């Protein structure tokens, strides 16, 4: 039996309607549905190669050149689920090579800072699950694979698709209806751009999992957010995406970022992800929007101080020009690639 490997890439996705809260932490089932935009393959992404061999002693993971543990329950549940699918395939077709029991080596590289609130776990788990599914030649569609990736990291389920993606929270206790679906491919609204402002590349102080558990347990606002705010916003945002209505999409995106950081602040003890530079970015975007009398750009912040700014291509000069004016004197680098423009910058 020849050794075989496959290589895939999975881009980062940035939520415009945030997932924050689990109703089942073992199956990674969320307390609300969420929506994200998957960045283009030219931007932030994880590249993963996976290989099986009877000569390997055990499964192993190499991340950015260093061997990492592969023993976390989340990693193990993804591997177990994928192996189970391969075993079923081998049982159905005895002519197939028996590879499900062979050790795997997984080699992953991120082209951006890991665990800095730039959705590295999303791209990482999506790439790991997709690469092993390809290696095992599993006949599972992306929504099915998203249920496996979800068990690695919730937001990872959305990176199985490009374009505009929803994670439907589902209602079943076994999680079989908690999956990602594509709202629209990237080609539906090709003019959308994302600029990533890297305020800090340091590892986040409060990891998402612990942070959201604290919020669920202690925030009084949280119940209001998941029951009253997010369900309506989820429908409105899907509509805005389908209608390519940037003004509404931008407003909902900014409001949801605010709402997510509000429940973080309402947690006890409070969680602060945004810093003073993040707040300056909010001010600058708000000022641009007020100056033009319409939503030219939308900010959103995840579990860290870094900003993602969504805007339309036609407004690129306004948005990047203004950001450059305010923050451009700070050393950094800019990269123009294909269809989207990233401006990761380090701020003092
Ligand atoms: C703020 O997916 O990293 O980025 O499921 O515990 O791994 P786990 O959490 P994770 O949380 C992401 C939180 C967020 C919002 C989002 O991406 O929807």
Automatic annotation (TrEMBL):
Belongs to the diphosphomevalonate decarboxylase family. The keyword Lipid biosynthesis applies. It comes from the Eukaryota. This is Diphosphomevalonate decarboxylase. It catalyses: (R)-5-diphosphomevalonate + ATP = isopentenyl diphosphate + ADP + phosphate + CO2. It is an enzyme of class 4 (lyase). It comes from Dekkera bruxellensis (Brettanomyces custersii). GO terms for cellular component: cytosol. Its EC number is 4.1.1.33. Pathway: Isoprenoid biosynthesis; isopentenyl diphosphate biosynthesis via mevalonate pathway; isopentenyl diphosphate from (R)-mevalonate: step 3/3. Keywords: ATP-binding, Lipid biosynthesis, Lipid metabolism, Lyase, Nucleotide-binding, Steroid biosynthesis, Steroid metabolism, Sterol biosynthesis, Sterol metabolism.
């Amino acid at each position: 039996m020849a050794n075989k490997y496959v290589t895939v890439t999975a881009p980062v996705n940035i939520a415009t309607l945030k997932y924050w809260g689990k109703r089942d932490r073992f199956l990674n089932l969320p307390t609300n549905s969420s929506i994200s935009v998957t960045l283009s393959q030219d931007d932030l992404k994880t590249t993963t190669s996976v290989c099986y061999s009877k000569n390997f002693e055990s499964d192993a993971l190499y991340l950015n050149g260093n061997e990492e543990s592969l023993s976390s329950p989340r990693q193990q549940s993804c591997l177990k689920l994928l192996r189970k699918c391969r075993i079923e395939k081998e049982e159905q077709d005895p002519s197939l090579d028996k590879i499900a029991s062979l050790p795997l080596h997984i080699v992953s590289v991120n082209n951006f800072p890991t665990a800095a609130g730039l959705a590295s776990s999303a791209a990482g788990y999506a790439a790991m699950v997709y690469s092993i599914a390809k290696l095992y030649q599993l006949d599972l569609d992306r929504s099915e694979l998203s249920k496996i990736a979800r068990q690695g990291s919730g937001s990872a389920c959305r990176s199985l698709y490009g374009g505009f993606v929803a994670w439907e929270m589902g209602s079943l206790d076994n999680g079989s209806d908690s999956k990602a679906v594509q709202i629209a491919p990237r080609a539906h609204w090709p003019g959308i751009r994302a600029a990533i402002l890297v305020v800090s590349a340091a590892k986040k102080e409060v990891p998402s999992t612990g942070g959201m558990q604290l919020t669920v347990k202690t925030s009084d606002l949280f119940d209001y957010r998941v029951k009253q705010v997010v369900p309506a916003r989820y429908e409105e945002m899907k509509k805005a995406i389908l209608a390519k209505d940037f003004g509404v999409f931008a407003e909902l995106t900014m409001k949801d970022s605010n709402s997510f950081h509000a429940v973080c602040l309402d947690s006890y003890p409070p969680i602060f992800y945004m810093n003073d530079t993040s707040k300056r970015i909010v001010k600058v975007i708000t000022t641009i929007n007020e100056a033009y009398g319409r939503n030219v750009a939308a900010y959103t912040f995840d579990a860290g101080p870094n900003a993602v700014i969504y805007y339309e291509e036609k407004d690129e000069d306004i948005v990047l020009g203004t950001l450059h004016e305010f923050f451009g004197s700070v050393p950094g680098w800019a990269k123009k690639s294909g269809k989207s423009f990233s401006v990761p910058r380090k701020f003092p």
